[in-house]
Design the sequence.
């Protein structure tokens, strides 16, 4: 049985701001864009949440809910520095770390022998160390798999610590509504509701055949998740070399056609950059999109010819994940890591 931790900082950007200016701690604050520039809230502290302010909410709406809300412009450089300290802490516990964002990661601690192998002690240690080294509170969930660990870290937020042992897993899942399951967004939840399925026990009563019929391949996943089955490994991302170009736009690109136009210039620049130097073989092409709500998505495909058409195709798909104005676009190629070349016998 695996032991997975999911560690997640509490309202990360806002937490860094409050750490650096303690006078903010008891006041409602948010990090985000200006209301008069159609900005949105990236994150907010708990006093702000008490007013109903939420991530991805337009700043203007947030100010209506909470007129005294102080909206701070994001300082990603500072957030990245804190993030590096916290990620380094994770790696002290285990090399099996899968960072999900600046403030969040999965850790596979199945083989860790420190703390007598107790996931609870490890989680407690991470929380103590994060707080004493960076002044930031972490919520940690421990469970036999990724999806339960992620729900667990969210369970007692902020400053949470929730452990789900293999014995407790079934009872824990029984109390969940389906929207807690990994990959079940509002659309899938609504479709399940139309089928009369709102909770995990209700989902378990549905046959696999019926789920496959209604949800295609995802039906299999629903069948497994409702039974606490999730075989996904913690993905240890290696330092991969890549070549890329990106642009942050002064004014958000309003729609997909505007993005497609902008990406043409980026691909030309990328071509020039690739032509300038000799590189190891290319093995992946990717696009990166940062939307005006600060969410970032990247999409990659295996391929060796970085042509405009394939980037436009990737962009199309990536853009539709959020379908909103875009602040930053990037295109790039990943290069075959030297280790892989060795394994292929090319060195
Ligand atoms: Mg977080």
Sequence:
């Amino acid at each position: 049985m695996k032991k997975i931790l999911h560690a997640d900082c509490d309202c990360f950007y806002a937490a860094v701001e409050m750490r650096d200016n303690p006078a903010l701690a008891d006041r409602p604050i948010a990090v985000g864009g200006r209301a008069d520039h159609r900005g949105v809230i990236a994150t907010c502290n708990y006093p702000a949440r008490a007013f109903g302010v939420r991530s991805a909410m337009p700043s203007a709406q947030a100010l209506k809910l909470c007129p005294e809300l102080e909206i701070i412009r994001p300082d990603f450089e500072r957030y990245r520095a804190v993030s590096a300290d916290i990620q380094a802490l994770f790696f002290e516990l285990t090399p099996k770390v899968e960072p999900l964002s600046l403030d969040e990661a999965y850790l596979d601690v199945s083989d860790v022998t420190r703390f007598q192998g107790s996931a609870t002690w490890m989680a407690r240690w991470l929380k103590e160390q994060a707080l004493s080294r960076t002044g930031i509170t972490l919520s940690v969930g421990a469970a036999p798999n990724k999806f339960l660990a992620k729900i667990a870290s969210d369970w007692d937020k902020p400053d949470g610590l929730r452990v789900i042992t293999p014995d407790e897993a079934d009872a824990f899942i029984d109390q969940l509504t389906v929207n807690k399951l990994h990959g079940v967004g509002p659309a899938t939840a609504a479709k399940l509701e139309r089928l009369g399925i709102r909770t995990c026990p209700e989902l378990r009563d549905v046959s696999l055949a019926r789920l496959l019929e209604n949800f295609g391949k995802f039906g299999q996943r629903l069948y497994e998740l409702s039974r606490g089955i999730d075989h996904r490994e913690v993905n240890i991302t290696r330092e991969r070399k890549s070549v890329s170009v990106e642009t942050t736009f002064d004014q958000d690109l309003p729609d997909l056609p505007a993005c497609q136009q902008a990406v043409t210039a980026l691909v030309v620049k990328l071509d020039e950059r690739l032509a300038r130097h000799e590189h190891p073989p290319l093995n992946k092409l990717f696009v990166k999109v940062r939307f005006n709500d600060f969410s970032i998505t990247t999409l990659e495909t295996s391929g060796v010819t970085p042509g405009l058409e394939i980037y436009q195709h990737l962009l199309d798909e990536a853009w539709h994940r959020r379908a909103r104005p875009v602040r930053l676009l990037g295109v790039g190629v990943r290069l075959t890591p030297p280790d892989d070349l060795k394994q292929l016998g090319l060195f």
Notes: The chain has three domains: 1-163, 176-225, 242-343. Residues 242-343 form a domain with the Dna Ligase; domain 1 fold (CATH 3.30.1490.100). The chain has 14 helices and twelve strands.
